[in-house]
Amino acid sequence: MKKNWLDEKIKRFSSIGGYVKPELISDSIKLDSNENYVISKQLQNDIINTAKKNSDVREYPLGGVEQLIESLSKFLKVPSNMIGVGNGSDQILDLILSNFASKSTKVLTSNPTFGFFEERCKLYSIPMIRIPFSDDMKLDLNQFLKESKKADILYLDSPNNPTGFQFTKTDILKLVKSFDGLIIIDEAYGEFSDYSLSKLVKNYPNLVVVRTVSKSFGLAGLRLGYFVANKDFADAFMKVIQYPYPLSTITIQSGISALEKPEIMLDSVNVIKSERKRIIETLKKYDAFDVFDSKANFVLFDAHGSYKRVFTALSEQGISIRKLGKIGNHEGCLRVSIGTKEMNSKFLLAIRDFLG
Ligand SMILES: Cc1ncc(COP(=O)(O)O)c(C=O)c1O
């Protein structure tokens, strides 16, 4: 009897499948995970060296998270009692879902939305209301406003992964104002976009803005995410829900050090935004593709029936992008991250050769 219970559980987990990570191809030009290679390795070396000096890993990082939150508070210009941290924004999203949502709370989101978030909803059997993207990869505000009455939680990745779409600030505010449940705005790509809602949290006690150093700071391997929320939410999250020591000492100290150099991050964001424009404009010249505008550090395009061949041709040249396939009426979607100028040029040359 006991064993049946365990078998059933394991069977259920196996049937969900989980988040599919990109394939590990050694020495490839990695444009598959929306990482930031414009940030030089020098920043990494500097912050890790500083972190090493400031760390004693024989000890638990007592007081470390609080110190990091003070740095985030200065960086964001938001009071520290409205900030929380996590082991990547993945962990923050996971803890919010596992503690605030259940089988009887409905999550309103887009289709597609951030894959990990969707997988976690499946894992916890949280029902989703999913609003599809239009053929030009945009979302309809009115559909969200209509469905919002049936939902308890609103989750929007803003900009959206994988489409790169972001509502205008006016539109998103209409939605935020009208929604009385928990609102999670995931700004993992916020720095590459037109606006952030992090300063507006003080006006909306039900709003949580989740962010990360993985993308704009190019520090995905640190696994450092944070959020801005009303102080009661932040307090409950950090004191009760979050683990006592969610971040390693090295992560905490590296994060503090990186936040002292925001200009390096901002410079890389500017390069990525201008490279994004170049990639979009170049890809748009090919009739073989439908290319969608993006507010993030990646671009989505539909290569129709030839998407698998495009993916393979790039792989053969050592270039790794993300193969997504069908999104709505678009059969052959591929997502390419914006890399350094050289990486992007290699990608565009390989595309030109393929279409040649
Ligand atoms: C929309 C979105 N949110 C969150 C994350 C996760 O970020 P982190 O590295 O902070 O866990 C990603 C990563 O790809 C993402 O695309």
Would you mind describing this structure in some detail?
The protein is an alpha/beta fold and about 350 residues long. It folds into 2 domains: about 25-40 and about 265-355, Aspartate Aminotransferase, domain 1 (Alpha-Beta Complex), CATH 3.90.1150.10; about 55-260, Aspartate Aminotransferase, domain 2 (3-Layer(aba) Sandwich), CATH 3.40.640.10. The chain has 12 helices and 13 strands. The chain has helices at about 1-15, 40-55, 65-75, 90-100, 115-125, 140-145, 170-180, 230-240, 250-260, 260-285, 305-315, 340-355, and strands spanning about 30, 85, 105-110, 130, 155, 180-185, 205-210, 225-230, 290, 300, 320, 320-325, 330-335. The strands form 3 sheets. It has a 7-stranded mixed sheet with strand order 2-8-7-6-5-3-4, sandwiched between helices. It has a 4-stranded antiparallel sheet with strand order 9-10-13-12. Helix 3 runs parallel beside helix 9 and helix 4 packs parallel to helix 5. The longest helix is centred in the C-terminal third of the chain and has 23 residues, at about 260-285. The protein is globular. The chain starts with a helix and ends with a helix. The mean pLDDT is about 95. Pyridoxal-5'-phosphate binds near residues 90, 114, 161, 186 and 188.
